[in-house]
Amino acid sequence: MKKLFLLTALAFVAIFAYAQEQNKPTVKLYGFIRNYMDFDSRENLSSNSDQFNMIPKDQNMSDGDDLNDKADIHLLSITTRLGLNITGPQFFGAKTSAKIEADFAGFGTSNTVLRIRQAYAKMDWEKHSVLVGQAWHPMMGDMMPDVFSLATGAPFTPFSRTPQIRYNYIANKVTLTATAMYQLQYLSYGPKSNDLYNSETSFDYARKALIPELYFQAMYKNNGFMAGVGVDILTLKPRSEYTNAAGYKKLSNELITSLTPTLFASYKNGNWGVKGRVTYAQNASHLNMLSGYGVTKLKDNGDVEYGALRSITTWIDATYKQQLEKGTLTYCLFVGYGKNLGCSDEYVDPDMMYVRGYKNIDNFWRVSPSILYTQNAMQFGIEYEPTMVGYGNMKADGSVDKQRTKANHRICAMMKYNF
Description:
- This protein is mainly beta.
- The chain is 7% helix and 62% strand.
- It is built from 3 helices and 27 strands.
- The chain has helices at residues 2-23, 138-141, 204-207; strands at 26-40, 44-47, 52-56, 61-62, 65-66, 72-76, 81-91, 94-106, 113-124, 128-136, 161-171, 174-181, 188-192, 195-202, 213-222, 225-236, 241-243, 249-251, 256-269, 272-282, 292-298, 304-323, 328-342, 353-355, 361-375, 378-394, 400-418.
- The strands form 5 sheets. The protein has a 16-stranded antiparallel β-barrel with strand order 1-7-8-9-10-11-12-15-16-19-20-22-23-25-26-27. The chain has a two-stranded antiparallel ribbon with strand order 2-3.
- Strand 13 and strand 14 (195-202) form a beta hairpin.
- It is globular, with a radius of gyration of 25 Å.
- The N and C termini lie far apart (55 Å).
């Protein structure tokens, strides 16, 4: 009897230990060491120590010299990345997973500060999924350009990661997405300290509006084909208070709501693929697009009304992968174009506009070929990225009378070790 009791107890311990092991999350480390060497023929609007390249700056004339017409070169590894993919036990019938990802491109005196990129938990049922945490903005997460430059096609395409609650419903080949977001790293512009004549970036404009940024999308996938349509709805509260005509401080109820719809599609067949996107942007500076808004009416009592600056951007890229005896070569050609469409109303004053980029941009375009060699964990690539911007004189509605074109010729070389 004692032996039977002992064997039964041992069996229960083994079963309990097995159950505990089954419920234990599994963690997989991933990442890469990445070095970029960039040459620019001109001063640029950029971030991350100039690695996140946007557009060339307009002329800055002094005694016949354009002070922005100067080249530079640098080599940095701050976009080296570390991440953990985590899978765990079920939760109310859902498969659970999580991700945490960081790089060294945060802001600091040495520009090598650990920065959170993604950190979320996810639950997957058969036809439903819920994601909570910081992840890629759903407007771009399903399809990005294949360029290897850090900007990943911005400002021709949305670029953002943000805290969010995302719900997906999957029915056959269609996925419906609804997402609520608030800003953290990629921010909107607005009046600085409620001063209409000065601007800055801040997440306060979105948070004090109380209404989250909303994104709705429908996407169809079938074999190598994908197509989708989505719309981003952003509400901002540019000022929390203002001074009325009698000189008293008043709480502000002013809001601006803007819509940014997008269409995208891709097709892949064997070693080649093509993808593209069209975005009609209104006040989309938080998406790293050349956009914003401004004051269109200044009332006698101190209230104001705002109007969104509109633009349309489009891009397409094509890739071909060639298998070699050792490794592969991937060829990519990216083409992007953007046009400033102005505002439906006239702005009161150019100084009362809150815009990412410059207020006197008419259009911008880029043609960027690249080649990437991959063998096992190692990758080497080179990319030529010429970007042209048409600058001129801004009209009252925010559109621009083009006067001149400024160009930057960027050559980017990359070495990357994946693990």
